[in-house]
Amino acid sequence: MTDMTLKVAILGAGQAGARHITGFLAVEHAQITAVADTDADLARREADRSGATPFQDWRTALDAASELDAVVVALPHHLHAEAACMAAERGLHVLMEKPMGSSLAEGRRIEEACRTAGVVLMICFVHRFRDEAIQAKAWIEAGHIGVPVNCMETIASPRGSHLGSWINSPDLSGGGVLLYTGVHAMDRLLWLVDAPLRDVHASTRTLTAGSRVEEAVTALLTFDNGAMATLNVTGPTYPAGGTSWRSEIYGTEGVIRIRARQSVEIAGNSLAQRIEVDDTSTRDGENYNFKRQAERFVQAVRDGEVSPIPGRTGLAVLEACQRIYDRGIHGPQFALR
Ligand SMILES: NC(=O)c1ccc[n+]([C@@H]2O[C@H](COP(=O)([O-])OP(=O)(O)OC[C@H]3O[C@@H](n4cnc5c(N)ncnc54)[C@H](O)[C@@H]3O)[C@@H](O)[C@H]2O)c1
Q: Per the structure, how many domains does the chain have?
């Protein structure tokens, strides 16, 4: 453990960047020194809130801020690889928004650049830091559901005008709702089942006339340990309420049910328990998981630990998404490679 305070640049101050700023401001041993966004007003506002210097491009932020230790890449997907690789080449640790890149090749470039530079690369699968997910993982690791057999994973998140228009461009986003939202659900499945993906069957659809990216995905997945899962991802453009996700993991000895921001429960041979989690969100703020994520990143850098969510995890999720695109025979086709 060193007594270093990490100097951090936030690259992109939009939806995700603002939550990262809130997270880092609540963390000890970290100081936001630069905030970059092409929207000058947004950059200034978020920099003021952070006591940082505003920049209007991520490159100028890297060039000007000579004493940086780390960056948070919260940019549109097509900029992830260039920003992360340049940061790594300068010896900066990288907290990388999902998906790792807008293509598998980009993800691999990022992983290699960070490995070669010897910097921490942590992928922002921030749902893992919510109480309900932490509890579910602990029950599984303690053996309370036996071996996972049959899983149902559902996530829905509206794609309205509150989001950047780039998410609807295959060139800028790399894909549709699967890459912007579904990656969280795919990561959760791979994490909770804890086995490599074997077979993938999938279909993709659009919900909006003229959409150039998929807005709905259904997949049937099997895993090397025999588990199977259905994955449902939907991104309606009509007012469908906020982001919601739920997971059900049926094992040989019991079942875990997660209702995001509501509850997590287990019922089985060795344990029956239900925990309400909305109190935690109310007490610590809706985005308390961003603070926990920032804490773990800072700790990994300061203590020289391995990344809590390393590049290979981000790559496994990208590979799984590519396999869905390969099998999604109805609707737009993408090539992440
Ligand atoms: N973990 C989560 O809960 C979560 C939520 C939303 C988005 N994300 C991820 O965060 C990333 C950003 O998504 P978002 O929804 O915040 O997008 P956004 O459009 O809201 O924010 C991106 C910001 O980057 C800025 N930008 C564009 N080009 C730039 C440049 N050259 N230099 C500096 N700034 C530039 C834009 O002006 C914009 O403000 C994506 O990878 C997305 O998948 C994660």
A: 2
